[in-house]
Write a structure and sequence with these properties.
Length: 254
Amino acid sequence: MGIGTNPDYDQAFAAALDWWRQAGVDCAFEDAPRSWLPDPQEPESASGKKPARARRIEVIEQPDTPAPLILPQDLESFHAWWMTTSELDPGSVSSRVAPRGDANPALMILAATPEDCDRERLLSGPEGGIIDAFLQAAQVPENDVYRASVLPCHSPGADWSPEANRVAAEALARHIALVRPQRILVLGFIILPLLGHDSPQVPAVSLDFKHEGASTPMLALRRIPAAASRPRWKAALWQAWLEWTSCASPDHTG
């Protein structure tokens, strides 16, 4: 575009803008943000210009450590907490099954969850029947047995990782400490990681539960299987029980 000695700048600018509009460009952008307004609190430099100011971005970090769990200090209060707290299970409390037995028993039996048919009494179904028959054969009096479960409701498909069961693991440790059993019989290896042990590759294993300076002998077995393989499971239980109880009497401290 030629411009004479007396150019019409208004006409030139208008023509340039029309050219860009026809090309579809009507805005200009910059990648780097900048403030068009001066900061009244920013001091001026020797040149009279206010220095550039870096932006400060504050990041609020969320705490990684969960809040401490407040647990009851006596067994009766623990039972009430167990049947009502939402910290163990946010669902309905109507399907929960309470532990049963007296404190300081000869044996505490620990299941993962209540049986599907349990309503008023824990381990009142087929699995509980096998345990009852075993206790009679082993001549363990009923009033020397305390029955408990890790979770208060029948929970098929539950995630049994320690990360997903932090509250249940802490509650379980407190439960055992309040019951003060002389021995613990664990039904199912999925419980062991919550008690600080790895899952073994054998039918039964003898361990110790250590908590707050106390050490309690513990016999863990695979979960009670389907009816077809129960004879072998019962034979393994009986053999493990004989070997476990043939040891010296437990030195229970607590």
